[in-house]
Amino acid sequence: MGNLCACPPNAKPERKETTLKYYAGMTCGGCSSAITRIAKSIEGVRDIQCDVAKKEVVVVGTMDEKTVTEKFTKWGEKSSKEVKLLESL
Known about the structure:
- The protein is an alpha+beta fold.
- Helices cover 30% and strands 29% of the residues.
- The termini are far apart.
């Protein structure tokens, strides 16, 4: 029986757009800039919003949740800031 899928053999499956909401212990514009720079380096990120006062970060796109969480967690460890995923929609 042949391949029933019309996709090229090495095609990546399309990801559904998701919204990830994080708590990130940002204390200043430098923290916000760092988080924004990190998020923009991740494939599939379409939009990033940082609210330093609320210590919230919202990432929208077709990115991999695990990748975003790992990169934000790494930033948090290096900068002694708490980071945790609050919501995945």
